[in-house]
Amino acid sequence: LWRPWAYVGHSFLNNWYAQLFGDTPAQAVARFLIQTNFICSVIALLLLLSILRKVVNAWIAVAVVFAMNCSTAFLNYSHSGAPYIPALLFSTLTLCLLTVAAERPAKGRRCAFLAGVSFTLACGLWFPYALSGLGMLAAFYFWPSHNSDEKSKVRILRRHLIRVFLCSLAASALPLFLAG
C-alpha cells in the first residue's frame, strides 16, 4: 500500500515539487511520504487524545499524548517516510471506531465494519500491527457500558459486532493480500 501511495504522490506533486524546491523525482517522493507521515502523526495523536479523554482526566490524557509524541516512533519514523506512522493512524482509528461501536449500539455495525477495513489498512501498511488485533477486540469487548442493567444483552451485541469486525477484516484483507 505504501508504494502505490508514493506513486500517487509522484504523479500529482512531482512537477510542482520540482518547480518549487528543485526536487528530483526521488526527493519529491520522499518529501511527499514525509509530509504524509506528519499529517498522519497529528491525526493519530488527536485520535489517541479522544480515546484517552473517555477514560482518564484531561491532564493525564494530554501528558500521555505528549509522551507519545516524544517517543521514538514519532521522532524517528515520522521523518523517514516509512509506513509505520500511517499504520499507527489506522490502528488508532480502529480502536476509536470500536469504542464508538461499544458506546453507541445504533452505530455499532457501521463502526465495526469500518474498524475492520481500517485494521486491514494498518496491517497492510505495517504487518506487525496484526499482533495488536486481539488486544483491540478485548478492549472493545470489555469497554464500559452505560447500561449496566442489561449486561447479557450488551455481551451478545458485542459478540455480534466482533463477528461483523472479523468478517469485514477478512473481506477487505483477502483481496489485499491475494493481490500481493
SSE topology:
Blueprint: H1 2-21, H2 25-53, H3 58-69, H4 72-77, H5 84-103, H6 108-125, H7 133-141, H8 151-179
Helix pairs in contact: 1-2, 2-3, 2-5, 5-6, 5-7, 6-8
Broad shape: globular
CA-based gyration radius: 19 Å
Discrete helix count: 8
Structural category is mainly alpha
Helix fraction bin: over 70%
Low-confidence stretches: none
* Number of beta strands: 0
Sheet with the most strands, sense and barrel status:
none
Mean pLDDT: 88
Strand fraction equals: under 5%
Distance between the termini: 10 Å
Q: Element order, helices and strands?
A: HHHHHHHH
Keywords:
0% strand, 8 helices, globular, 180 residues
In short:
This protein has 180 residues and is mainly α. It has helices at 2-21, 25-53, 58-69, 72-77, 84-103, 108-125, 133-141, 151-179. The chain contains eight helices and no strands.
Describe, in plain words, how this protein is organized in 3D.
The chain is an all-alpha fold and 180 residues long. It has helices at 2-21, 25-53, 58-69, 72-77, 84-103, 108-125, 133-141, 151-179. It is globular and about 65 Å long. 32% of the residues are buried. The mean pLDDT is 88.
